[in-house]
Amino acid sequence: MTFKPTRREALLLGGAYAVAGTLIGRSIRPAFAAGRTLKIGIVSPKTGPMAAFAEPTEFVIARILEATGGVIENAGLRYPLEIVERDTQSNPNRAAEVTQDLILSEGVDVVLCYGGPENTNPASDQCELNGVPCLASDVPIEPWFFGRNGDPKQGFDYTYCAFFDVTTYAGAMLAFMDKIAPGGTVGGLWPNDADGVVLSQAFTDGFGAAGYTIVDPGRFDLPTSSFSTQIAKFRDSGVNIVQGIMPPPDFTLFWTQCAQQGFQPKAMIAGKSSEYPASVQPLGDKAVGVSVPIWWTPEFPYISSLDGASAFQIARAYEAETGRQWTAGVGSRYAMLEVLIDTLRRADDLDDPDSVSAALGATRLETICGTIDFSTGPVPNSAKLGLVSVQWVKASEDYPFPFDMAVVENSFHPSVPVSRAPFPIPYD
Q1: Which position among 95, 138, 263, 392 has the lowest Cβ density within 10 Å, counted as fewest Cβ atoms?
Q2: What pTM was computed for the model?
């Protein structure tokens, strides 16, 4: 079907968006379940350094509720659907608190959490502790799994993650790096957090085995006011590729200070930040050439299982309705809610969390991000997504934003077309 963006409204009450389904004409539909509403809780970093992750969530919630009519059908009964969002303030302690509130006060049936391990891990732990099915995303699988002391022989009972794994992420970066500075020197900008600790070892081993020299100044705490120590180390060591895993404000600061201090690598691969326009817009022309592996773009050749809209249509609808540029989070938030809706439709017993968790674990669903299948991940309870590498470029004149992301390498997701060849960062 062809989707035409329209203005939509959803009832907002205490952070909850709810739309009740209505009968259309004289058609016969299953009866509503007496006194039972299904609730999805969303744990979001709406404020704080990870706020860029949460920008698309309100749009996606409204669109999902419109697509479902605010109703979920299961076993011949119709259940009103309510989606309740809580703000973690990008703080792990707050993430645990709001998840507990969603479980104990709101009585949610399932939880969606996202935005790096600092948000997803405490939320997932609360769900596991309280026996509530939970889906994490926008967090690499290994920092989510091993950051929670997961046992690969056992897995978890109620918590799942659908995102990319470290092997795919490293492979996508290597495929890009090989076309920019093969056998070059990589500077690692890896902080002292769950992402930085897990990924630093994986990337050091993987890049080294591929023939790259690694320069690692060591773990560091965030936020910070200066990256001068790291920049000096990179410059003195002949680094020509930088790979960093930092929230948007920290990357923006680092790249600004690189320009001020005359450090000009051929490639800047900025994970956890440059996927989001908010992190590169303050850079102006210095954003051109910044790269990152990404899990969704408008070029992805998939449609939504809920409304049949394509990735391109959803991205343009988001821009038209919000006035903001698309982000990869539009796709992953959309896909994860597709998965949770599908889970609640298939569960044998909606009042039994074990039954709902079993349905979630058995998912095999074609979504706007591609196939979500929890048998595909590197550890139990995980579903692996594909990746393409993108670089920021100056946008065409007919695009309403100054910069855009161009797909430049697709070895780890060949169904997504490449729009241009990789290029070294241009400097004046």
Answers
A1: 263
A2: 0.89
